Q: What sequence folds into this?
């Protein structure tokens, strides 16, 4: 039973890491601000859920698990909200989707 | 270190601010790995949270790109390199990290570990050392924070009597903007009371786990800054006017000093908590509680005053 929990948390943690890594690559390779944010935020949220689930399995049924669940709920609230706020701010400041980023334009011209 | 190099090399100040937030977060993780959660919590709350907001507030008042550096950088570079080489050479003599034979682990740490349960009896020895054994140093820290707050307010000329400028977030006033900002407003309004509650928890839990006045002040200030960012500064100033913020700043430092003077008046030394209660241990508990409240009040007041001093200036 212990080995089962260990294997499960190992799987969850490594998948969480893979998701965050994919998000990082996406944030670098995507051409536009909006696609980059899409890549980074979706994968980040999924990675957070998986990693915290993995750590909760390791912590067992203790006070630490409840605290981790509270952190997970907090992150599930704030991470998509901040992405939404960032995208709204970008839209309102005039950056159209599909347009290159300002400093990329500077470095290319 | 890569982050630090990137901060120095980039000419875009906005990027530098974001990178410094990343740097603070990495440093906080580093502190946590080195087994010091109090310092990690303070670094994360202040460095990665509040500092970034304050830097962005300052950036909104100044330009976005660094001006071209002045001449004669070579002399500065040689001086810095020489000094850093000397410092690195000095650290070579240091005992390895965590070495149990280091002098600090032979005399200082065992004394604190042995005497805290009998003299102060709080589970968190860091708080005991910070608040009671080295309480005079913490008094200095509080007054440094207070002085920094006063300094910023002098420089920015915040006048407590002047009515606040019209709201700096015009997007919130126009109907088009309101639609875009709805989700952050709803979620933010939901979160602000919990953030302040968590800040209060950290404040009073400092005796038992990582926490204490500095972290709690930063967290509560962050919650109120979130409220100010969502609802506009004038709304936030109606909740907490400038005079109340100055009162917070002053009362925190005053509380700390008064606890010290009360120690004298009741027969002990300055900042001697043992005479404050019926028995020395109870007195220590009361003293630590009061000065942590003082620290939290001052840190909250200063951080909020600095934030509002930047935000009220508005775009020229």
A:
């Amino acid at each position: 039973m212990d080995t089962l929990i260990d294997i499960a948390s190992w799987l969850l943690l490594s998948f969480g890491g893979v998701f965050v890594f994919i998000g990082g690559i996406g944030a670098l390779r995507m051409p536009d601000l909006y696609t980059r944010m899409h890549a980074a935020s979706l994968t980040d949220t999924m990675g957070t859920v998986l990693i915290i689930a993995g750590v909760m399995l390791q912590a067992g049924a203790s006070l630490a698990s409840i605290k981790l669940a509270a952190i997970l709920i907090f992150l599930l609230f704030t991470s998509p909200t901040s992405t939404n706020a960032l995208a709204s701010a970008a839209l309102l400041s005039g950056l159209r989707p599909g347009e290159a980023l300002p400093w990329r334009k500077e470095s290319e011209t | 270190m890569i982050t630090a190099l990137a901060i120095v090399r980039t000419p875009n100040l906005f990027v530098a601010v974001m990178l410094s937030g990343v740097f603070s977060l990495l440093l906080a993780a580093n502190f946590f790995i080195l087994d010091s959660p109090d310092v990690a919590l303070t670094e994360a709350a202040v460095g990665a949270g509040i500092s970034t907001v304050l830097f962005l507030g300052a950036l909104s008042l100044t330009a976005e790109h660094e001006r071209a550096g002045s001449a004669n950088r070579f002399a500065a570079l040689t001086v810095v390199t020489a000094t850093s080489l000397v410092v690195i050479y000095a650290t070579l003599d240091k005992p390895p990290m965590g070495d149990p034979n280091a002098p600090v682990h032979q005399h200082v740490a065992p004394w604190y570990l042995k005497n805290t349960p009998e003299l102060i009896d709080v589970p968190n020895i860091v708080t005991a050392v910070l608040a009671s054994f080295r309480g005079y140093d913490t008094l200095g820290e509080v007054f440094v924070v207070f002085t920094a707050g006063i300094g910023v307010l002098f420089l920015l000329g915040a006048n407590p009597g002047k009515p606040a400028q019209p709201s700096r977030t015009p997007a919130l006033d126009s109907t088009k903007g309101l639609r875009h900002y709805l989700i952050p407003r709803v979620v933010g309004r939901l979160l602000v009371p919990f953030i302040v509650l968590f800040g209060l928890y950290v404040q009073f839990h400092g005796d038992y786990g990582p926490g204490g006045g500095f972290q709690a002040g930063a967290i509560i200030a962050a919650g109120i800054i979130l409220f100010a960012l969502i609802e506009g500064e004038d709304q936030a100033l109606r909740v907490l006017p400038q005079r109340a913020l100055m009162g917070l700043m002053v009362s925190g430092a005053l509380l700390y000093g008064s606890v010290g003077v009360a120690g004298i008046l009741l027969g002990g030394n300055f900042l001697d908590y043992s005479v404050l209660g019926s028995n020395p241990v109870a007195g220590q508990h009361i003293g630590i509680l009061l000065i942590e409240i003082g620290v939290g009040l001052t840190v909250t007041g200063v951080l909020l005053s600095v934030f509002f001093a930047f935000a009220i200036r508005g775009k020229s």
User: Anything to note?
Assistant: Residues 101-316 of chain B form one domain. Residues 160-178 of chain B have pLDDT under 50 and may be disordered. The radius of gyration of chain B is 22 Å.
